[in-house]
Amino acid sequence: MKPSVTKLVCGSLILLGSVAQSQVDSTSLNANWRLNVEVGLHVFPGTFNDYFGLADWRPQPSVRIGIGKDIHDLLSAEAFLEYRGYLSTTRYGDMFPWIFARSFSRTEFALYTSLTAFGFLEAGIGAIAQSHEEIVYYETTYDHTLSEAPHRQPAASRVKLFYLVGLKYDIPLGARYYVPIGIYLDMFLGKDEIQSPTLRFGISKTFN
């Protein structure tokens, strides 16, 4: 091989190598990771609809922790662990309500992944473990007096699949900190049981 050809080939390989390295460096710079901590509040608590236990459950503030990564300029993926808590009212029903001995608690742990497109459209799918403690209640009679003996519903637990959709926006604070804020809706797979819209906001940090 002639020296001029050898130089040309070597020069081409060096150029291709530098271009490839620049692409790797560019990709690594754009491949941001993200840590999120968010609080969730139900927007219309009275519309909460999930038939699990003899109670009218009132949602408490939820907390979710997430880690995500930018996989494209317009697409990012995240994984979340979320805690949700609920308290029952002390009265359930209208004409002949059940009167609860006290307010009972229900807890949920959700694990799910989501994709966010264009920075504001989020959709996810995952599983949620639900449980409530034993419920003690009294029935009311036609003359609106309480039954003498209490009734009991045993403590229960279950796991269900669900999906969520939402609209979000990250408010930049500087130094790679953001305030994520969004509105989300959950629905169980194969069921018409949905939760009221949830407003989530918190703090996030991106890093390479």
Structural features, described:
By secondary structure, this protein is mostly beta strands. The chain folds into two domains: 1-30; 31-207, Beta Barrel (Porin). The chain has one helix and 13 strands, in the order αβββββββββββββ. The protein has one helix spanning 3-30, and strands at 33-42, 57-59, 62-72, 75-88, 91-92, 98-100, 105-117, 121-132, 135-139, 151-153, 156-174, 177-188, 198-207. A hairpin with a 2-residue loop joins strand 3 (62-72) and strand 4. The chain is elongated. The two termini are 45 Å apart. 17% of the residues are buried. The model is unreliable at 8-29 (pLDDT under 50).
Average pLDDT, rounded to a whole number, is 84
What is the rounded distance between the termini? 45 Å
Strand segment count? 13
Helix-strand category: mainly beta
Helix run count: 1
Contiguous uncertain segments of 5+ residues: 8-29
Structure at a glance:
This protein is mainly beta and 208 residues long.
Key descriptive features of the protein:
208 residues, mainly beta, Porin, eight-stranded antiparallel barrel, four-stranded antiparallel sheet, 1 helix, 13% helix, 56% strand
Topology, element by element:
Blueprint: H1 3-30, E1 33-42, E2 57-59, E3 62-72, E4 75-88, E5 91-92, E6 98-100, E7 105-117, E8 121-132, E9 135-139, E10 151-153, E11 156-174, E12 177-188, E13 198-207
